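Running this now, will post back.
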Amino acid sequence: MKSEIKIKDLTFNYFIPDEKNLSIKSLIINIFKTNHYKKYTVLKNFNLEINNNDRIALVGKNGTGKSTVTKIIDGVYKVDKNQLKIVGNIYALYEPFSMLNHQINASENIRIFYSNYNYSIKEILRIERNILDFCDLDKKFINLPLKYYSSGMITRLVVSLYVFLKMKKPYTLIIDEAFAFADIHFQNKVLKKINEKINQSNIFIMISHDFNLIKKYCNKAILIKDKKNFKSGTVDKIQKIYEKI
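Update: finished.
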């Protein structure tokens, strides 16, 4: 079975609180009104078609909608079913600090994560031990909530979750370049395993500004210039356009 992703004529808006209406007086006066938000259009008439075996880089300046696109594909943001077609499973690694519950410890986060993928209790407990060993977590932190962990510890934990996750084919793998793999020692340890996940994926999507990294993993690129200006093509073509903006 093959993977496929299609987004058709999609307009996507955020609704941002209107600072003028945030005072107590204004909230009381307008308590029965619903116009406390401003509409911000991120994407307008956006179209995207990604086929099986594509390796795509999403590039563009910060705030142009790259992460929004991946979160629409991943199902974080819901859109009209007629505007989005997904064939295959989706796995996404981005924003490590938002992917876990910082009020509970590593073991509890591991159990919740794998229960979402229908692993049995026996399987989860086995994987849990492997993950804790693999991510080099200091034993004194194991029973502490994640809010006491360093950023590097949290990143290692999240990457380890995906290293041991059996991804069901066909699948699309999304990785945000901002998802740094912590210290050099851990990078060397995990890179081979992450590369295996990428190579086995039916579709790979990377958010990145680094064209050296893009050329290593991707054969196509999409430049999102602003909410209604998009360019797609070979990595070399998009790099030339990107360097001029």
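Residues 24 and 30 are 10 Å apart (CA to CA). More later if anyone needs it.
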